[in-house]
Design a protein that fits this description.
Number of helices of chain B: 0
Helix content of chain A: under 10%
Radius of gyration of chain B: 14 Å
Shape of chain B: globular
Largest sheet of chain B: 7 strands, mixed
Distance between the termini of chain B: 32 Å
Structural class of chain A: mainly beta
Strand content of chain B: over 45%
Distance between the termini of chain A: 41 Å
Helix content of chain B: under 10%
Largest sheet of chain A: 6 strands, mixed
Number of helices of chain A: 0
Strand content of chain A: over 45%
Oligomer: heterodimer
Shape of chain A: globular
Number of strands of chain B: 11
Radius of gyration of chain A: 13 Å
Largest interface: A-B, 24 and 25 residues
Chain lengths: ~110, ~120
């Protein structure tokens, strides 16, 4: 089976940097994705890592270490609109994705 | 117009009723998925379909059934609803993955279902 662990809640200050970690145990691994979901909204795709290293997309970066079964999402220059839930998701096979339970990020002034 | 449309957006019904949630997409994707979301449990896969003739159970398919009427339409049914099926339901679509490349999933706005 698959299991993913991420913190349930994180609080950070506007303008700061926050890192949301995700560790996983899977049978088979193709890559790690991150999705953002605002309250009452639909999840939206942020990033995907198949190989070790850092992927940067604007203020957001995502990192993967396959040997450590670990990844993180880094949000820089936090804005109030970044307050949302963030889900890591592992791709474990052909078109098969398992989502974590989500991290609720609260950005405070 | 939304690329992935779910109807209804909200539904309140009684235990034992049959309910159908519908999903249609204009993205031209082959793959379609149904998830349910409960507080603290993230998104759990109910069923997924790779094309019209290929439907697969997810991790929590008991009590649910699906129908892929066309490439663009994928409906979820609760044959006899029970209160613990109260949840937020999402439909999603994706294009085909290729090897280690990834095609992200695109989600509808969700259906909030309450079963009394």
């Amino acid at each position: 089976g698959q299991s993913l662990e991420q913190p349930s809640e994180v609080t950070a200050v506007e303008g700061a940097i926050v890192q949301i970690n995700c560790t996983y145990q899977t049978s088979g691994f193709y890559g790690l994705s991150w999705y953002q979901q605002h309250d009452g909204g639909a999840p939206t795709f942020l990033s995907y890592n198949a190989l070790d290293g850092l992927e940067e997309t604007g203020r957001f970066s995502s990192f993967l270490s396959r040997s450590d079964s670990y990844g993180y999402l880094l949000l820089q220059e936090l804005q109030m609109k970044d307050s949302a839930s963030y889900f890591c998701a592992v791709r474990v096979g052909y078109q098969k994705v398992t989502f974590g339970t989500g991290t609720k990020l609260q950005v405070i002034p | 117009d939304a690329d992935v449309t779910q109807t209804p957006r909200n539904r309140i019904t009684k235990t034992g009723k049959r309910i159908m949630l519908e999903c249609s997409q204009t993205k031209g994707h082959d793959r379609m998925y149904w998830y349910r979301q409960d507080p603290g449990l993230g998104l759990r896969l109910i069923y997924y379909s790779f094309d019209v003739k290929d439907i697969n159970k997810g991790e929590i398919s008991d009590g649910y059934s699906v129908s892929r009427q066309a490439q663009a339409k994928f409906s979820l049914s609760l044959e006899s609803a029970i209160p613990n099926q109260t949840a937020l339901y999402f439909c999603a679509t994706s294009a085909r993955d290729g090897g280690y490349s990834n095609q992200p999933q695109h989600f509808g706005d969700g259906t909030r279902l309450s079963i009394l």
